Amino acid sequence: MQPVAWLNGEFLPQSEARISPMDRGFLFADGIYEVVPVFAGKPLAIEQHLIRLTQSLESIQHPNPLSIEQWTTTIEQLIEKNGGGDIGVYIQVTRGSYQKRTHQFPPLENTQPTVFMTASSLPAFSAEAIGNGFHAITSDDFRWGRCDIKSVALLGHCMLRQQSFEQDAIETLLEKDGWLTEGTSSNVFLIKDGRLLTPKADLRILNGITRQLVIDLARQADIPVEIRDIHIEALFKADEVFITSSTKDLLPIVKIDNKTVANGQPGPIWEKLTQTYQQLKSQ
């Protein structure tokens, strides 16, 4: 079935969606995106995703074109038109088209935002692959200084992800001045002596929705949580390492830069949190 998209108020086949070449998202990556995971036809944590969308738009001085209620209704319609199931809903809002290419933001009264949504299947990982765990690499974080904004300007992320792709690794874990930040499309967690550690959500990382859910689940399970600066070397001394994202859930990392993490197997705290996260998804 061909994916159904939503563009500026209209549902249409994705292949028929068109934008102007003068769109500032196309010319400047002047836009914000969001991805809402859907399981068995039901979006997970949709309000949190839409609040973050609003926050990112506010960060670039752009009003949200829809209310949370309007977004929710439209997303539910898009899910239905795409057959439900386990999918990811991609949302993108750009500043729209302007009569000429100019670096400063054009006046709001002279532009209309381009609002686009589509849906696609979520990545699938076999039980065997998850049970064996995944490999990751590390690299210098050369992205821009506002990684807290979910910007469509992702070239740096793509370049860094390509590094791990070419080494048959699931993710590139990033460090800035020796401190762990995040993955190219994931947040990072470590387990050390029974404690859950993750970098603090400042300008250097995106405060992932799955990250927030996992922290809440850990606290409910009485697992001590530490949110703080973490040196990159801590990855190699951890008892467990895993990454989180809305489209990949919680994935265990058992080898980093060809060095084995602990005993080289997914750990018990990752397993416990994964089980409770799966229960959350099914509610």
From TrEMBL:
Q: Which reaction does it catalyse?
A: 4-amino-4-deoxychorismate = 4-aminobenzoate + pyruvate + H(+)
What would be one Pfam family of this protein? Aminotran_4
Keywords linked to the UniProt accession: Aminotransferase, Folate biosynthesis, Pyridoxal phosphate, Transferase
Q: Which SUPFAM superfamilies match?
A: D-aminoacid aminotransferase-like PLP-dependent enzymes (SSF56752)
GO cellular component terms?
cytosol
What is a GO molecular function of this protein? Answer: transaminase activity
PANTHER family associated with the record? AMINO-ACID AMINOTRANSFERASE (PTHR42743), D-ALANINE AMINOTRANSFERASE (PTHR42743:SF10)
Q: What job does this protein perform?
A: Involved in the biosynthesis of p-aminobenzoate (PABA), a precursor of tetrahydrofolate. Converts 4-amino-4-deoxychorismate into 4-aminobenzoate (PABA) and pyruvate.
The protein's name is Aminodeoxychorismate lyase
